[in-house]
Amino acid sequence: MEAFLAACIVAGTPLVLATVGELITEKSGSLNLGVEGMMLMGAVMGFSAAYNTGSPLLAVLCAALAGGGGALIFALVTVTLRANQTVTGLTLTIFGTGFASFVGQPMIGFSVPKSVSVFFAKMSLPVLGDIPVLGPIFFRQDVFVYFAYAVVVLSCVYLYKTRLGLNMRAVGENAAAADASGIPVTLYKYAHIVAGGALCGLGGAYLALIRVPIWQSDVVTGRGWIAVALVIFAAWNPLKALVGAIFFGGLSILGLRLQAMGFSLSQYLVDMVPYVATVVIVVISSHRKKKENQPPADLGNNYFREER
Amino acid sequence: MNWLKITKRDNLNKKQETIIRTLAIVLSIVCSGLILVIFGLDPIRIFQSIIEGSLGTELRIQQTIIKAVPLTITALGILVAFKMKFWNIGGEGQIVMGALAAAFVALNFGNLPKPILLVLMAAAAMVAGGFWAFIPAIFKAKMGTNETIFTLMMNYVAIKFVTYLQYGPWMDPNANGFPKVAPFPENAILPTVLGIHAGWILAILCTVLIYFLMKSTKLGYEITVVGESYETARYAGMNINKIIVVAMLISGGLCGLVGMIQASAIEKTLVAGISSGYGFTAIITAWLARLNAVATLFVCLAFAMLIQGGAYLQLAMNVPSAVASVVEGTVLFFVLGSEFFLQYKVNIAGRPGKTTEKEVA
Prior knowledge:
The structure holds two protein chains of two kinds.
Chain A: H1 2-27, H2 35-53, H3 56-80, H4 85-104, H5 114-119, E1 123-124, H6 134-138, E2 140-141, H7 143-161, H8 163-173, H9 175-180, H10 185-211, H11 223-233, H12 238-260, H13 267-271, H14 273-287
Antiparallel strand pairs in A: 1-2
Helix pairs in contact in A: 1-7, 1-10, 1-11, 1-12, 2-3, 2-4, 2-10, 2-11, 3-4, 3-10, 7-8, 7-12, 11-12, 11-14
Chain B: E1 4-8, H1 14-38, H2 43-55, H3 58-83, H4 91-108, H5 114-143, H6 147-167, E2 192-193, E3 196-197, H7 199-216, H8 218-228, H9 230-235, H10 240-267, H11 278-288, H12 293-316, H13 323-343, E4 344-348, H14 352-360
Antiparallel strand pairs in B: 1-4, 2-3
Helix pairs in contact in B: 1-13, 2-12, 3-7, 3-8, 3-10, 3-11, 3-12, 4-5, 4-6, 4-10, 4-11, 5-6, 5-10, 7-8, 7-12, 8-10, 11-12, 12-13
């Protein structure tokens, strides 16, 4: 059981990063549906950098840059050129998918070099790792997992305890009012879209570098979309996003576990579970009408100063 | 940004509009060329091969049209939903479910006379595709559930389900252990007309039908109004929920029909990968065509050239066919961005500082 829960954390980590990334983007008022594409771009660039340089840090950096780069295109087209966010996000997914299979084609079947996999090997945190039950589950993981925890904590602090976070939420709630009070709306939108995209890129990199350390072009398989759904499920709260992502990570490895335990279930039917669960969550979320569970009021609207 | 003066255009003539649109396409081609250069490819040769590979010989032209058929019909389906601002991303799943229903009919009623069997397969496929779109539609109508994620998840559910059938209960015992569904009987295969399977006739027929549905029927008008504003539609006394559901049945039904065509004429059986990305590409083509049915037909032909050319690139030059989707994405980014220049006029004004100086002087 402990091993299964520890594996849930590993399976959930890419979702944590992508979900928090999309959450930050949405809090600033932009609905970027290109998560799947940005994760793929991060995955392929991270893997490529790891394979070609053997440097784990360069791999991570390239993944963040690739995800952020994808997001920058989205920002340019929607914030500056005011195009429809839904369609632009979808295009980013198509672009990212093509980009990943194009760049990744020559690397199919290659594995992550040893220097990188050693760097991302599991390590027990001092003291925390020795806590009974919780230690082995949460604190005997790889660096990336600890980074994901940090991202959740820091984003909570940023969103709810800092001036910048407050301003950013104001932009997402009512861009016109934020602008009137002197907040540089365009800058805030760009910064958070790109930062969110970088996190999505890192989520993709986790899949390609650690989850499945051999390149295959369909590493992400819908996790980007699950991340978009998790933001709704988490009611735009990073802590709830962490819980949701780990839960979904668990669902995605449930099939293998059940088979290992001797249940003769078809793997393909069990593979359906996370997607069905996402649907259920989206339906349940649409039913909740509590005030604190609502999306940022300006989500999905482009801001035109001239039309104020 | 004070030196840029952005003003709303009120009247844009056809000529200016054409210039801006053409410019966007040209720039997007230049930009995708640059991307190719970065990856060490020769863009001129790539573009040449794409054209050669899609139009070079009679056989390749036929292949291009064969790829345009599913793309066009799917895009028409997507168009009906998008017109209503219902983001149907579930084309893939609706195609797969259509193929599943068509396969069920083909494998169980293979003795029926060909025309009856084919009509039955098409009907079953449209019902199944429509049903797959109906589920998210009814939730959207009743509870306001986010349809983007719902329809998308339905894709994965459908694909996993057909994979399950293919590897499980529907696996052909005569395939020597290969996870394949039994091949369709001869009666279940679409006939060939002028060297291409009859799906192309259906594609043209659907284009005309959807064009008239959107332009000259009450339902088409209602769909457009719902897309523009729920409030207006409600004020006009329209039954919004009913319109959403009916439009999604049409949308999913068309995608389901694509599943039947592909299963019957291309794969001649049921495979999980039957939709091969048409459901996603169709979103782009429908949008590029500005949700106009006739324009959709032509945009889909152009994109079918990209797909067929991409496949040729892979064979002839050993360049991954995904190049085509990178080009697709780039083109759409530019077209999306160009809308801005259709709505706004951008003037580079003198620095505001300078003008005030003059005034002072």
